[in-house]
């Protein structure tokens, strides 16, 4: 099969090549890949750490070519969206059935391919906050692929949503259209305590966002696009003056039981238009280097999709 292989001597660190078809385990389905979406983390650290000649890629949508031998998961011919630690940037991938969501027939698999990492991270990070109906939620790094999903899902969940972005003049209207009630430049600009934070930047923004938590509030640390460390000022973690019982929790998407159900639900929301994946770039996989360069240069605000084939 054709695939994009790690080759650090090539533009974007990838080259097109031929590799053997995957040999699925009994609990895996073989998927014919139609499209894959790129994530900042996989093109930043994933490609740097992947062995030469391997097939990278986390997110992929396509059609079941061969159902799992153990009888689990969707049947042959089912449109699906999939998540795994590698193998998405190829014509076929083998995926554990617990990491496969089904997709409504007729849906655009390119837009649905944005769901696994970005959509599932957003959904599960918000769940870590607990019930958000009527609560105030702050989203940092809101213009990224995960952030845009968080804004929409938080609004659907009944929260008052504050979105933080480095350039409100350029992105404020778009974030409000997705559901943000207010848009600020940084967490320090929020004029009220918040009940929960989905933090996607790290460094000083994480520290500032924690300082905005109300008593009993939770910050979920999901992303670290900055290389800066978190330095809390003296007294920041003391629970006095009505700031008690605040928490910071770490986040990692895998492993996670129920991801097949979450991916199915998210794919359905994208297919019906209730969630907008905000695809900012789309092209054939021969243009992968172009998409990677744009992501690493922080010139893409939203998702990048590669159509396979």
TrEMBL record:
<dbReference type="Pfam" id="PF13602">
    <property type="entry name" value="ADH_zinc_N_2"/>
</dbReference>
<dbReference type="InterPro" id="IPR051397">
    <property type="entry name" value="Zn-ADH-like_protein"/>
</dbReference>
<dbReference type="InterPro" id="IPR036291">
    <property type="entry name" value="NAD(P)-bd_dom_sf"/>
</dbReference>
<dbReference type="InterPro" id="IPR013154">
    <property type="entry name" value="ADH-like_N"/>
</dbReference>
<feature type="region of interest" description="Disordered">
    <location>
        <begin position="1"/>
        <end position="26"/>
    </location>
</feature>
<dbReference type="Pfam" id="PF08240">
    <property type="entry name" value="ADH_N"/>
</dbReference>
<dbReference type="InterPro" id="IPR011032">
    <property type="entry name" value="GroES-like_sf"/>
</dbReference>
<dbReference type="InterPro" id="IPR020843">
    <property type="entry name" value="ER"/>
</dbReference>
<protein>
    <submittedName>
        <fullName>Zinc-binding dehydrogenase</fullName>
    </submittedName>
</protein>
<feature type="domain" description="Enoyl reductase (ER)">
    <location>
        <begin position="9"/>
        <end position="306"/>
    </location>
</feature>
């Amino acid at each position: 099969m054709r695939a994009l292989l790690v080759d650090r001597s090539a533009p974007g660190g990838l080259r097109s090549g031929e590799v053997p078809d995957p040999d699925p385990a009994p609990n895996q389905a073989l998927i014919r890949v139609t499209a894959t979406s790129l994530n900042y983390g996989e093109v930043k650290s994933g490609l740097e750490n992947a062995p030469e000649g391997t097939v990278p890629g986390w997110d992929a949508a396509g059609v079941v070519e061969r159902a799992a031998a153990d009888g689990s998961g969707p049947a042959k011919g089912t449109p699906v969206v999939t998540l795994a630690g590698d193998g998405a940037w190829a014509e076929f991938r083998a995926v554990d059935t617990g990491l496969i969501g089904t997709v409504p027939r007729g849906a655009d698999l390119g837009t649905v391919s944005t769901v696994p990492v970005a959509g599932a991270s957003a959904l599960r990070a918000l769940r870590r906050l607990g019930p958000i109906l009527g609560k105030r939620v702050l989203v940092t790094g809101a213009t990224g692929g995960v952030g845009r999903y968080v804004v929409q899902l938080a609004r659907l969940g009944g929260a008052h949503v504050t979105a933080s972005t480095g350039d409100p003049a350029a992105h404020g209207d778009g974030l409000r259209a997705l559901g943000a009630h207010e848009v600020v430049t940084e967490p320090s600009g929020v004029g009220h305590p918040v009940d929960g934070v989905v933090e996607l930047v790290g460094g000083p923004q994480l520290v500032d966002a924690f300082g905005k938590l109300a008593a009993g509030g939770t910050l979920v640390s999901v992303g670290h696009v900055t290389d800066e460390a978190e330095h809390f000022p003296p007294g920041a973690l003391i629970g006095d003056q009505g700031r008690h019982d605040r928490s910071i929790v770490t986040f990692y998407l895998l492993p996670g039981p129920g991801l097949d159900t979450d991916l199915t639900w998210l794919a359905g929301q994208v297919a019906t238009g209730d969630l907008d994946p905000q695809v900012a770039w789309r092209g054939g996989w021969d243009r992968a280097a172009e998409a990677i360069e744009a992501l690493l240069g922080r010139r893409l605000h939203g998702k990048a999709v590669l159509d396979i084939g």
